[in-house]
Amino acid sequence: MPVQPLHIVLVEDDDGHATLIERNLKRSGLVNGMTRLRDGQEALEYIRREGAYAGQTLPEKVLLLLDIRMPRVDGTEVLRQLRGEPRTATLPIIMLTTTDDPREIQRCYELGCNVYITKPVEYQAFIEAVQRLGLFLQVVMVPRNGNNP
Q1: How many CB atoms lie within 10 A of CB 98?
Q2: Residue 65 in contact with residue 13, Cβ under 8 Å?
Q3: Of 17, 81, 100, whose CA–CA distance to 43 is shortest?
Q4: Which residues, including other chains, have CB under 8 Å from residue 65's CB and lie 6 or more apart?
Q5: pLDDT tens across the length of the chain (149 residues)
Q6: What gap in Å lies between CA 113 and CA 106, rounded to an integer?
Q7: What is the pTM of this model?
Q8: N-term to C-term CA, the chain
């Protein structure tokens, strides 16, 4: 059976960070489809197929790269809500954020994130971290989305 490509959903409100992440994931050799969303509310609507995304089909295998500090709904609230819904409880979620507060990291793991990655502040370290993430994502296997419309 052929491997279904993993679709990456990047939820990042900072345009500069989003561009660096997208560019360096591609430079790492990642050829997966990618959708960029700008805040937590948009992420919830995308995953739930509500609002502007109503009636659209969600890709079969999705991985969320989720920032924490965002307008409207922050990343930890998105994580909490998605883990509380049976259809999205096993959706792979990687927190990718500048927040390195140990309490915030602990809270994200308690809420059920799969991986927590701190975005380095220094430019070159940030690029290297994203490229390593891209290499990791090339080999990761994720389950199909439950009850995909």
Answers
A1: 14
A2: no
A3: 81
A4: 8, 9, 10, 11, 12, 21, 94, 96
A5: 344 567 889 999 989 888 888 887 787 777 778 899 999 999 999 999 999 999 898 887 888 999 999 989 999 999 999 999 999 998 989 898 888 889 999 999 999 998 888 876 676 776 677 667 665 665 555 555 544 43
A6: 10
A7: 0.82
A8: 22
